[in-house]
Amino acid sequence: MADTNDAGLRAFFSKDHSRLDSIFNKCRKNGYSNSIDLLKEFATGLIQHIIWEEEYLFPVFEQVTGMTQEGPTVIMRQEHHTIQELLYDLLTLAEKGDVDPTLPAALEGILLQHNQAEESVLYEAVDSMVTPESQTELINLLNSSAPIDLQKWLAGVEEVPEVIQEETHDDDCETCHIENKKEDSPISFH
């Protein structure tokens, strides 16, 4: 998991990208079928990362910009779906010892362009939208979240708790908050 030593959500999520890339590179170097435990660590981290983005970052971006039917988060969700499909295939084939080399190459390719887009567009935007205090609060929340159960995810039964969000505005709408009803922690925008 990423830590809070570097300030901001962009630094937190970018550092997590680097951590995941490092694990994936070790799997490639050692052979995916020879690195099942490491590959599972990568998969668990990647799925957690996707959940964090889709449950916390994307709603912030969409709330502030109003871009819910089009824009970067719509594309990123589609890419997350493709990434998860490729990851599932890689895990199941690696366990059988039958990994087609084009599969990890395809996953690596989509992750590279996807991560670059997130880091240069989404993370940058959310960093400018959310107050530093709320960023720290959110990072602490993410770091304390329970890890996913990879076996349940592989079986297709992983239930991600739904986050209920409520928008509140002050009278002049200069300050907005999204309250996470599950954790009851406000995220304050600039």
Task: Characterize the largest beta sheet: strand count, sense, and whether it forms a barrel.
Answer: 3 strands, antiparallel
Principal-axis shape? globular
Biggest β-sheet: strands ordered side by side in the sheet:
1-2-3
Distance between the termini: 27 Å
Total domains: 1
Count of DSSP-assigned helices: 6
- How would you spell out the order of helices and strands? HHHHHHEEE
Structural class: mainly alpha
Low-pLDDT runs of 5+ residues are 1-5, 162-190
Give the integer mean of the pLDDT values. Answer: 81
How much strand content do the residues show? 5-15%
Number of strands: 3
Fraction of residues in helices?
A: 55-70%
Structural features, described:
- With about 190 residues, the chain is mainly alpha-helical.
- The protein has one domain.
- Helices cover about 65% and strands about 5% of the residues.
- The protein has helices at about 10-30, 35-65, 70-95, 100-130, 130-145, 150-155; strands at about 165-170, 175-180, 185-190.
- Strands 1-2-3 form a three-stranded antiparallel beta sheet.
- A hairpin with a 4-residue loop joins strand 2 and strand 3.
- Helix 2 (about 35-65) packs antiparallel against helix 3 and helix 3 (about 70-95) packs antiparallel against helix 4 (about 100-130).
